[in-house]
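Aggregate trends can hide what the representation actually does to any particular protein. The sequence in question and its C-alpha cells are set out directly beneath this paragraph.
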Amino acid sequence: MSTCTICGGIGLVEHLTEKGIWVSRPCECQQMERYHKRLASAKIPERYRHCSLDSYETGFRGANPSLAQALMTARKYAEAYPIDTGGNGLLFVGTAGLGKTHLAVGVLQRLVQERGVHGLFCDYRELLKNIQNSYNSTVNTTELELLKPVFAAEVLVLDDLGAQKPNEWVWDTVALILNTRYNNRQSTIITTNYPDLPAGGGVQTEAQRAAREQTLGDRIGDRMRSRLAEMCVRIEMSGEDFRQSVKRARFG
C-alpha cells in the first residue's frame, strides 16, 4: 500500500487560517477510509452497492413522471438531512421493478458519504427469518443481538416491508422496530410493493376480499400503517417494471 503524498500516512494535514493560525484537519485519505468503513458497516447487499441517486434513470422511453418526482424528493431529503428532516424518513410505495430500493440505497449512500451517517440496510423478510431462527436453542445469536443494530442505526433502510406473510408475531415485531425508532426520532427509509391502504381496502364481501390486491394495512396492520404516516414522507411511484426493459439481464 502506498503512503499518502499529502499527509505522509499520519492522517492529518495542516493549513493556515485567515487569522494566520496553523490548524490540523483530517486528510482526505483518512476521510475516505472512514467513509468506506461506514459504508461496509451499512451492509448494503452487493447487488445494490452501485445504486446512487445520480445513477437512477428517469429519462428512458415511456418513463412515468412519478419516477422523476421520486428522485427529486429523494435528493431534497438527502440535502435537508438532518436539520430539516426532523427525524422523519421516507416511504417508497409502488409495484415491483420501479427502482424503490435503488432510491432508498442511493439516499443512504449519499448520507453516509456527505453527512457521516452510520446507517444500516435490512431486508425485511430476511430480518424476520433471522429473528425466528434465533429462537432455536442450537443458534447462539439472540433476538436482542439481531435487533440491537436495527435500533442503533442512525438511518435504517427497511427494504420490502410487508413481504413476510403476516401473523400476530410479525405484527408485534414490526411494531417493536417502528415504535422504537419513532420514539427515538431516528430516520427510517422504507420500501414496499403494497399499496398504502388500510386493511380490507374497503371491500365488503368475502369474494371481493379474496380477489382484491393485498394492502400495506393487510400486511403490517392498520396501527403500524398509521405510525408510518407519522414517521415517513410517502413517495408514490407508478409505471411498468423497467427491469424488463432498461435493466434486463444479458450476457456481454
